[in-house]
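Progress report, Aim 2. The chain analyzed during this reporting quarter is listed below.
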Amino acid sequence: MEAARAVAVDTVAPADVERAVAVIVLAFSADPVARWASPDPRQYLTWFPPLVRAFGGKAFAEGTAHHVNSYAGAALWPPPAIDPGSSNAVRPRAYSPSTATWPWAGAS
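Predicted structure tokens for the chain:
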């Protein structure tokens, strides 16, 4: 039987927000729904990070974004009383193959 490996769970520091966003972008890079919505790799890498920030940004602000083992993984957990979209509004737009914009391109 293999010995259990220690897992270090830490809060994402403000200076490491982009590192945590990158972990989540990479994690979803093979997700069928994410890639169906954005099949072009350049398009996915352009528009998925703002989507992660828009929906998970409150977790960074509230200190409820965590990473494991020096960013081997990350999780964004906005507190229950926090509306994840209240200050990070995502404005859906129609997908346009000609301009290669993602439907969530209006994320601020």
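The radius of gyration is 16 Å. Strands lie at 9-11, 65-68, 73-76. These observations will guide the mutagenesis work planned for the next reporting period.
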